[in-house]
Amino acid sequence: MPAKKxxxxxxxxQDRERRLAWFREARYGMFIHWxxxxxxxxxxxxxxxxxxxxxxxxxxxxxxxxxxxxxxxWAKLAKQAGQRYMVMTTKHHEGFCLFDSELTDYNAARRGxxxxxxxxxxxxxxAEGLRVGFYYSLMDWHHPDGALCAKNDKSRRRFVDYIHGQxxxxxxxxxxxxxxxxxxxxxxDAAGWESEKMNKMVLELQPDIIINNRNQLPGDxxxxxxxxxxxxxxxxACMTFNGSWGYGPIEPEYRSARxxxxxxxxxxxxxxxxxxxxxxxxxxTIPPPQPKILKQVxxxxxxxxxxxxxxxxxxxxxxxxxxxxxxxxxxxYYHVNRWPGTDFSIGGLHCTIxxxxxxxxxxxxxxxxxxRVLLQGVPAEAPDPxxxxxxxxxxxxxxxxxxxxxxxxxxxxxxxxTA
Length: 419
Ligand code: GLC
Description:
The protein is α/β, with parallel strands linked by helices. Helices cover 28% and strands 18% of the residues. The chain has helices spanning 12-26, 46-49, 54-58, 60-63, 70-80, 117-127, 153-172, 190-193, 195-205, 257-269, 290-304, 306-309, and strands at residues 28-32, 85-91, 131-137, 179-183, 210-211, 236-239, 273-278, 323-328, 331-336, 344-347, 353-358, 363-369, 372-376, 388-394. The strands form two sheets. The chain has a seven-stranded parallel sheet, with helices on both faces. The radius of gyration is 25 Å and the shape is globular. The chain binds alpha-D-glucopyranose. Alpha-D-glucopyranose (GLC) binds at residues 33, 44-45, 183-184, 225, 238, 245.
């Protein structure tokens, strides 16, 4: 038998696409911010914002006594919510490690919690079939060289060895990890952090992993924070539930289920993902109203998920008062946030409509007058109390353009002027 030709090695871009394939379809994940700061409940930057002296803050390492294995509940909740992956803070800026580290005793296994919280988290994700991500802050307020490293090369050497060493531990001790999620690279630049070397090590240890862009290199995906703007490449918007990443019981305003669905529609339309944060209490419980909202969204995704998970084809669209679209091929999914009653039309649709139906419900009659689609036989009340989706099928690839005027110039049925 002739020897099998060795496969041609993939280019950097091909390998990135290979590693990103699952992430492109994941759409929705749960971010967990949990650490010593959770005991104070005043944002994860509390140590810095309130100038708490290190000696005072460090005491939190011994007083933290999380309840038994909360990660199992988070992962179950994430699954119910329709989320497909999780990312947890293994070390936030405060420097306290939720994993057992040979490089510092300032860690969960050796202090108050008395156990490796990262190990619990990883096992919990796997039990629910969720992909596993590690958030890791490069900036470190606890390490003696964490700030000095910018001024003195000996100090930088020690600190960078520490950080690279911990990343090595994280990606060696817990089996297959799917996402490396760096955060804040203050006070060094890419050369100072040795970021090229860092990413190379990460890929050597975990050849299938994807890496974010927060070690001053572009990495595999962008990470817009607290806003949703599509990028030219793969991206993931990370959003808080209530303005704080860490447990924030004194902030009463939470995003509603409709707002979460709005964010999901937006990320889908832009081909990105949503990483929605929960800040568990120090004992590990995710406080109300988050679980309820997450379950509502999960139920909704059970019915209308097709319009979010896979409807990520780009399309030109304009704002309309009633709702907004996602698209897959010639099908548009109109996410209707404001139900108008029986008088239902959509303007600016440039393609011939073939059929329409309420997703999961009845077929609708359609009429088209140039770029205006009229839906007939719609119920007076919104079929879904959250967001109703109307599926519209066209004869070709639809787009929506309205402009500011009301008159379509002659000779051009779809509003494109030749003049
Ligand atoms: C910011 C904040 C941090 C939070 C992160 C999440 O960089 O410093 O507290 O963990 O964003 O994206």
